[in-house]
């Protein structure tokens, strides 16, 4: 019978670091090790409780011994609880925790804690090599995935190459997905080809990744060839929704809508992603009749078209200002309003605003029973883009009255509205409020709005000081905004200074050269005009004297 023993928890106010006789420490350490060697969980937890009473919760060596004890008792959950409370950890701590998961037959969890931290993961991998764990395929696979997710694709390749004789399908999948996510689609295809040469049969995950890579690279020939291989090999694409969706997306990105439609028609179980990708492809290529025909087909297949599809469709039509098609979506939603969520209403309101139909957007906004922060933000953005800054500000204030806390997008929306209208005072007010907001941190985009509004008002020195005092690194775009303002207000001195900064930040960008050359060209024109004015004044003065 399994005995459930909770891991001891430090009590608030418990003495930490108080002098303890060395004899007690040695006795306790021996008890913990004996418990580990005999796999006695009860004795081990009793020793753990005593160590806490004696103030050893900050003792790294003692905690590592306890981790090893829980590992040998096959209690990875208790080891994890202790690990999370340890104030100090070293490589022994990480190895003990990982060993605990491995010995319990849970390889996935063994490296889960390290996948988001490439430095820590490298440390663990070094320990794996030293301890011989790297011979375990699941360890290598987890390390490859960890490096890939941390953006260290070179390290993923190094581990993958070292596993040459021990690769499994999971290894190949991890490497292909890593290349695709890193934007190295061509290399992903090469790994897939090598995988086939090694007689490894791809699965659903492999094919989804490789089609995604071909689509991202726009490599129609390679993707078509892989599709042919999949068909010949007998892989049931029509039954595998994730592969079918990836294949549809590949054909759409390559502009091959006929092939994409053929795949979706043959797919037995269609998901919402497939519908949306196909619909977006039709709209982007200007095939509006086919898009609406597909929507009618969706309505036949699906009893009720869900909110995700409707929101996505409204978003596509909004981006292309297709008001007729957008209104058809709206008309459909009114028939099934009882099952729709607020996201659909927000998307329809956004569509009306992007099409310039402010009154329709307002009406839709007022019909939303439970408005969220997105509902308010959509309207604020719309008002700002159409030059109704005062209305945008009023709505922002109303949102606060309704106890809806603005997020970073809402702040950006009201700042943009103030910027477009040249409302310097109001911009400063909301920017100060943003900086005081403990829940939202200003980003580069917020600073860019302030630089824009100050630049429009001719407050160039203030704008430059704001950039220089930013707690985050200023990007090229924010300096370009200031340079444009220098040109508008004919501030040659600052324009040359800002141009120099841009050249240092991004010297390979041709746009910067054009902007700087325009500053110099206009500066020369100003000099010519100034010289002409002085010559004219001298001529008139001489004329009066004569």
TrEMBL record:
The keyword Repeat applies. Keywords: Repeat. The keyword Repeat applies. It holds the Pfam family PPR. GO terms for biological process: RNA modification. GO terms for molecular function: RNA binding. This is Pentatricopeptide repeat-containing protein. It comes from Acorus calamus.
